[in-house]
Design brief:
This is DegT/DnrJ/EryC1/StrS aminotransferase family protein. The protein has 14 helices and 13 strands. It has 383 residues and is an alpha/beta fold. The longest helix has 20 residues. The structure holds pyridoxal-5'-phosphate.
Length: 383
């Protein structure tokens, strides 16, 4: 029992003193909402994504909603996505009046199965929203081959994938719309926030309008509104945090990969066979290791709750679950979705557990988690 050790959360943000000082400067500057810090943050992000236009927002949810609006997705349109994501991914489809269509996941990658995605395309399909769960991209070449073959827009829900790569290229540096979140648990945070990578200056201008009430200003005192925008801008307080965090992105991504490597080493080659649990894909070189998720051996209803409770109570270790399948949430059941429609998503949704993984985590803490997981699973197996 190691319950006397300090609580180890599954995620914890780290903001360095330099960044805290930079936030203090913004607070003292007389300009705290969207301004120079946002401009600098957008420019830095754009450079990071190979010069593509980038706009900041106050969440990674509205980024996707706005991308759907820019793509002209609305009533009568279908949008295909994965059932294993945060509800935001499907909610934004409903928000713009379109119809969410789910395709089951691949049980190995736990991302949307691209064969099933392609099979779900109908004449009404207008866009695709793939999710890169835990920071692992889908097969990006195949994704865009399918999108191009069927003339579909792609809104990449790369909320978890800042720092991930595909064939050596950064996620966000290519493709169609790419949406990132800077929510507190993400690898890089602004407290809350997000950004959208776009294709053209025209799309970027439209994004600015949707971000702030549809407003365009002209001359000294001219104003007009010609699209229905909302209130989605990022404050300079948030942007100052993002600027500070960006300096560490490369180092923290490397650190997370080292932690993931240590997880695999500590679990060892026999862990899956011995326990019936399933480790994630060893996606070194593509994933940014946003989450480290294992699939528990199925011991019937309550398997995950019992496991999470044991880790918390006996070992003082926090865990998470990402995610409960969206199609089984009430709002989606009301639209006709049922158990049995996406068996892989349902199985993984019931048994997935997210182990601690965060920027300031240490290899000793990885060892502590692995020892606790092994002990709990061994005890379960002995019962
Ligand atoms: C975090 C997250 C979102 C939502 O981002 P917010 O910034 O919280 O709005 C959407 N999709 C996925 C996969 C996420 O992890």
């Amino acid at each position: 029992m190691t319950a006397e050790l300090p609580f180890l959360p599954f995620s914890r943000p780290t903001i360095d003193e330099e960044t805290i000082a930079a936030v203090g400067e913004v607070l003292r500057s007389g300009w705290i909402t969207t301004g120079p810090k946002n401009q600098a943050f957008e420019a830095l992000l754009s450079a990071y994504f190979g010069g593509r236009p980038v706009r900041t927002f106050n969440s990674g949810t509205c980024t996707m909603e706005i991308a759907l609006r820019i793509a002209g997705v609305g009533a009568d349109d279908e949008v295909i996505t994965t059932p294993v994501s945060w509800p935001a991914t499907a909610n934004v489809i409903l928000e713009v009046g379109a119809t969410p269509v789910f395709a089951d996941i691949d049980p190995v990658t736990r991302n949307i199965d691209l064969d099933k995605l392609e099979a779900a395309i109908t004449p009404r399909t207008k866009a695709l929203i793939p999710v890169y769960l835990s920071g692992l991209p889908v097969d990006m070449d195949r994704l865009y081959a399918i999108a191009n073959r069927h003339g579909l827009r792609v809104i990449e829900d790369a909320a978890q994938a800042l720092g991930s790569t595909w064939n050596g290229k950064r996620i966000g540096s290519f493709g169609d719309f790419v949406s990132f979140s800077f929510q507190a648990n993400k690898n890089l945070t602004t407290g809350e926030g997000g950004c959208l990578v776009l294709n053209t200056p025209e799309e970027a201008r439209l994004a600015e309008k949707y971000r702030l009430q549809g407003v365009t200003r002209s001359g000294v005192d001219g104003i007009d509104v010609d699209v229905l925008g909302g209130k989605y801008n990022m404050s300079d307080i948030m942007a100052a945090i993002g600027l500070g965090q960006m300096k560490q992105l490369e180092a923290l991504t490397a650190h997370r990969a080292a932690l993931a490597r240590h997880y695999f080493d500590c679990f060892g080659p026999d862990f899956e066979r011995d326990t019936g649990a399933q480790l994630p894909l060893q996606a070194f070189g593509t994933s940014n290791w946003h989450l480290f998720q294992i699939i528990l051996p199925d011991q019937g209803p309550g398997t995950r709750a019992a496991f999470m409770t044991r880790l918390q109570q006996d070992y003082n270790i926090g865990t998470g679950y990402h995610y409960a399948p969206i199609h089984l949430l009430t709002l989606y059941r009301e639209r006709g979705f049922r158990e049995g429609m996406f068996p892989h998503a349902e199985q993984i949704g019931r048994l997935t557990v997210t182990l601690p993984m965060f920027n300031a985590m240490t290899t000793q803490e990885v060892e502590r988690v692995v020892a606790a997981v092994k002990a709990v699973l061994k005890k379960d197996a002995a019962q």
